[in-house]
Amino acid sequence: MRKAKPKKRYVLPDPKFKDELVTKFVNYLMVDGKKSVAYGIFYDAIELVENKTKEDGVETWKKALNNVMPSVEVKSRRVGGATFQVPLEVRPNRKVSLGIKWLIRYSRARGEKTMKERLAAEIVAASKGEGSAIKKKDDTHRMAEANRAFSHFRF
Q: How far apart are the C-alpha atoms of 106 and 64, rounded to whole Å?
């Protein structure tokens, strides 16, 4: 058991949009410590989103992220030899990080040629309420709904 809760680390806002959420997203997007490459991919993707939708790219990205964030999830809980999937509310920090992870994971799995194109396409799809990341959220919600009978096992 841990003695004290670790201090919360805060990230600096990004240079272009002055937004901390953008920095957080870029940190998840980054591979092998190449932050400038990750920033390049993100900014290019936002530009592609603006060209596709003729709307503000950052607003579209935020809308997509809000659409992807789950509100409930299931956690395994052992009770008397049986394992139950117990539905739980998702904490706000976890909501954001899950949304970011899913958006990036399903962007990487897409078929477009470059990462910026994949990310832009996934952002546009998620902002419209479609795409793989939205499907993941819906599956998570469906699973929580199906296991609502075990909600009294919450911890």
A: 13
Q: Which domain holds residue 109?
A: 20-153
pLDDT of residue 150: 86
CA 61 from centroid of its chain's CA atoms: 11
Any idea what the CATH number is for the domain that residue 102 is in?
1.10.455.10
Tokens of 24: 């957080």
Number of domains in the chain: 1
What is the CA angle 141-143-144, rounded to 5? 65
Residue 133 pLDDT exceeds 90:
yes
What is the Cα–Cα distance from 153 to 63, expressed in whole angstroms?
A: 34
What pLDDT does 153 receive? 82
Q: Is residue 14 part of a domain?
A: no
Alpha carbon distance 39, 99 (integer Å): 18
**Per-residue pLDDT reduced to its tens digit, 20-32:** 999 999 999 999 9
- Asked whether residue 49 is assigned to any structural domain, the reply reads yes
Q: How far apart are the C-alpha atoms of 113 and 36, rounded to whole Å?
A: 20
